[in-house]
Amino acid sequence: MKRRDLLVGATALAVAGATGYAWSQRGNGPVTDVASRPRLGMPPLLDTRDSGRLELTAMGGRTRFFGRNVSPTIGFNQPYLGPTIRMANGPLDVAVANSLQFPVSAHWHGLMVPGEHDGGPHLAISPGEVWRPDMNIDQLPGTAFYHTHVHERTATDVYAGLGGIIHVSDGRDDERGLPSNYGIDDLTIVLQDRQFDGEGRMVYGFSMMDQMHGLTGDVMVINGQIGAVAAVPRGVSRLRLINASNARIYPLFADDGRPLHLVATDGGFLPAPLEVETVTLSPGERVELLVDFSDGKPLTLMSGGDPNQGLGGMMGRFRGLFDRMIDRSFPVLPLLVDEKLPVRITSLPDDLGGELPNLPSAVRTRHFSLDMGMGGMMGGGMTGRGGMMGGFGINGRSFDMRRIDIEAERGSVERWIIGSPMLLHPFHIHGVSFQVVRQRGQQPSAENSGWKDTVLVGGETEILVRFDHPASREAPYMYHCHILEHEDGGMMGQLAVT
Q: Which domain holds residue 477?
């Protein structure tokens, strides 16, 4: 190693020690027996396909994550998180009640619905009120994410538990040869990292670094549980992975190097399974993977270090050296074979029936810059209404609910070129599906090859956006960074589709 690299490496080690990169090993030790740890539970399944009705209540509760103490939490229909909602295309009569003492909303992240049903900041539900959108579901099958989306409360309230998962189903998974037995070979896995105090209580500690990078924790919480083990049958299992963390980016891989088979992205199925070694999941993104456990061997789903943390974030030129010298990987979830579970699927499907995006030429091109002013990180804050005085914004302007930033024509396709001069930002657009065309001048990664509604932007990313549903100026769509602290801090804009 050259002397200069040695000095830089020493700096990296010093910074790592000073900023606490050691991942908590609470509940993360080696696992060889499925009975040695609590078994991972699935969120309760709320199937709306026969009734055509969905009833949710935002409520408070108390959750014991570990130890003797409980944490104050919030959720939909339960103390923390919400049920997995299974729905099909067609009419859906929705009622979302708010029993809390502050406003909430129900944003259907990944559902292609009009702005008046989208559940964004303009559709907040006041305490004691009920929101009753008469919805119609019309989209490809896939995995979506619902959560509160009240401006300047999203980060804290999602962190406290106000979110859940949606399965849009067309009833044809058996034809596709896909695992579909909920909680047995079809696992819903909600990834969250959280902070806890010495007494086992979940805390939302907010520092200057948390504001800059978004809040991250050092304990993995999967489906609201710590230290649990997922049991799978001795066959092929389906993992629906949802990044519900506020800010952490997960480069996921198997500890034993076995291949992961990508079958779906945000917007639905790929044409056929795609073998990958690593899949990167940023906040708001979803993927579905097939993993073969026919040999009976266990697997631990691992994550590499968050690329936005440490020298890999603001000082990107050191990232390669930093990651070569320090292994920042950590266990996310152990999966062990339970021989008692029924085996349904023993081979990978050949044809999933999905189609890769192939949108027509764009009618116009728009450019976006995801801006981070240093003043905001140091406590400067925003100017409000229009400009940025050193905080978060898009194209030099902080979010303002009274301003429509973009108007698009319904049925049109636009080319959006999104630049991120600092950090990586997961960019989400409400109410649309888009095609990722280029990332840093290269072809899109595997996890961005299908239909998307959220994409991780580093450098410059080019997408084609199709506007199929209306969004009025009174109930517009949002486009924003899905690092929730950045979104609340002003890195968000408003889109009307007419």
A: 364-497
